[in-house]
């Protein structure tokens, strides 16, 4: 009887996924240096799989490899971030519009569950600020992902998710929801969006979701004010 060989996990893929997760969580912020020797020691491997992982991350535009300067987490210019948020706003709004068209009881339950989780996190923020912002951020993500799934459009979802992952390194949710008052505003937005979706009001769901995403006007300005200048590439050189 022929034995089945167990394929060993690819070290480069494993290291790539670990670094990518740290970038997306904001633990490795835009502009942070990545040093091969330090990463090899961290993961207890040789520098070869680390180098391969970095090359894969560079192909995804998550890191930048610059001659004589080394490797750093990729940074966007302010116009690039604005453009990405504008596009994300349109796609998120389209998800809400389609979710309103195709709403179901399952979607209603998923949205109510995420909304209640957000209320609980906001309530905790009033007395136990430590950790509550992260809790609310996760509840916010759950609410949006329920709407993505509710759109029932896989091609649209495939465009939304990579954009959200690209901008997640800037901790968008955390930086625009740093206080209980900001969380309450977000919850109010979610309540209105949920009502529009379940009423089947496509145009209202689209408008409310687009206004909810931090693009243009004061929303984008307030978001930028919470970010250090080191997070951004000079638009003249990007």
Automatic annotation (TrEMBL):
Pfam families: FCD, GntR. Transmembrane segments: none annotated. InterPro entries: GntR_C, TF_FadR/GntR_C, Tscrpt_reg_HTH_GntR, WH-like_DNA-bd_sf, WH_DNA-bd_sf. Gene3D superfamilies: GntR ligand-binding domain-like, Winged helix-like DNA-binding domain superfamily/Winged helix DNA-binding domain. The keyword Transmembrane helix does not apply. One of its GO terms (molecular function) is DNA binding. Keywords: DNA-binding, Transcription, Transcription regulation. It comes from the Bacteria. Residues 9-76 form the HTH gntR-type domain. This is Transcriptional regulator. It comes from Georgfuchsia toluolica. The gene is gntR.
């Amino acid at each position: 009887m022929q034995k089945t060989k167990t394929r060993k996990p690819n070290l480069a893929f494993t290291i790539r996924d670990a670094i990518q997760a740290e970038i997306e969580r904001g633990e490795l912020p835009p502009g942070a240096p990545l040093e091969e020797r330090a990463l090899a020691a961290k993961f207890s491997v040789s520098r070869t799989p680390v180098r391969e992982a970095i090359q894969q991350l560079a192909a995804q535009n998550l890191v930048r490899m610059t001659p004589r300067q080394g490797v750093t987490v990729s940074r966007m210019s302010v116009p690039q971030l604005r453009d990405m948020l504008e596009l994300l706003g349109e796609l998120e709004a389209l998800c809400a519009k389609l979710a309103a068209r195709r709403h179901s009881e399952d979607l209603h339950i998923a949205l109510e569950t995420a909304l209640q989780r957000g209320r609980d996190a906001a309530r905790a923020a009033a007395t136990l600020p430590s950790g509550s912002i992260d809790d609310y951020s996760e509840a916010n993500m759950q609410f949006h992902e329920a709407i993505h799934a509710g759109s029932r459009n896989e091609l649209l979802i495939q465009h939304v998710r990579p954009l959200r992952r690209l901008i997640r390194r800037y901790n968008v949710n955390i930086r625009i929801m740093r206080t209980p008052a900001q969380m309450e505003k977000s919850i109010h937005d979610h309540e209105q969006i949920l009502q529009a979706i379940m009423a089947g009001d496509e145009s209202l769901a689209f408008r409310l979701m687009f206004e909810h995403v931090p693009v243009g006007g004061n929303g984008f300005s307030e978001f930028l004010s919470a970010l250090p200048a080191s997070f951004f590439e000079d638009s003249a050189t990007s």
